[in-house]
Amino acid sequence: MANLTLTTFDWVPAKPRGYVRDLRVRWALEEAALPYRVASVPFGPREAAHFAHQPFGQVPWLTDGDLSIFESGAILLHLGELSPRLMPSDPHGRSDTTEWVFAALNSVEMASLPWTMSKLMGHATDTPAWKFVDDFLKLRLKHLEPVLAAREWLAGPFSVADILMSDVLRIVDDYDGLAASPACRAYVARAIGRPAFAKARADQIAHFAAADKARGS
């Protein structure tokens, strides 16, 4: 039996709740019905012990016995090794899943993150800089749209690739960035309609809400 501990922040402000990337790991753990516990590190000044596990001072990381793994993609690939609910067992399925994991985090998130950060910060949308960011995301979505129009999930059965890709896309959808990409939008709706996502999101929000009470806020 795996001995899994997910570490996230003890508290974050209201706006990022429901989006902190420990949600991706919670979601995978819930899909696979793997037992785990949640630990916390301070949101404030990062301590040496934090950097020892996550060299950039971010979250999450996962410990599995004497293994300590950071980066959500690496964590989900590790969990895929623990459960066929997260990663197909045949070589072609595993290869397809791994490809789409990297596509979600490299090809798509590298375009979506500047776009969503600009939206979050309220940057002007009538500048050459915004046009570059917006066009970059639209190009990625243009190529992803026919893929998702032709299949339910990226690599056959639902997998860690879908957890990552749908989580990358859902914040774009929250800012109406998928309005011209109906297959992408429908894919996000299918993914976040799964009970494991609802449980993971509710647990993350409850975790930070409990910290509000502890802080007296």
Structural summary, described in words:
The chain has 217 residues and is of the alpha+beta class. 59% of the residues lie in helices and 9% in strands. The protein has eight helices and four strands. Strands 2-1-3-4 form a four-stranded mixed sheet, with helices on one face. Helix 1 packs parallel to helix 3 (72-82) and helix 1 packs across helix 8 (195-215). The mean pLDDT is 96.
Strand order of the largest sheet: 2-1-3-4
Taking all Cα atoms into account, the compactness measure Rg is: 18 Å
The arrangement of helices and strands along the chain is EHEHEEHHHHHH
User: N-to-C terminal Cα separation, in Å?
Assistant: 39 Å
Q: Count of DSSP E strands?
A: 4
Main sheet characteristics: 4 strands, mixed
Structural class: alpha+beta
How would you sum up the global shape? Answer: globular
**Count of runs of 4 or more consecutive helical residues:** 8
Instruction: Bin the helical content.
Output: 55-70%
**Uncertain stretches:** none
**Strand content of the residues, in percent?**
5-15%
Average of pLDDT: 96
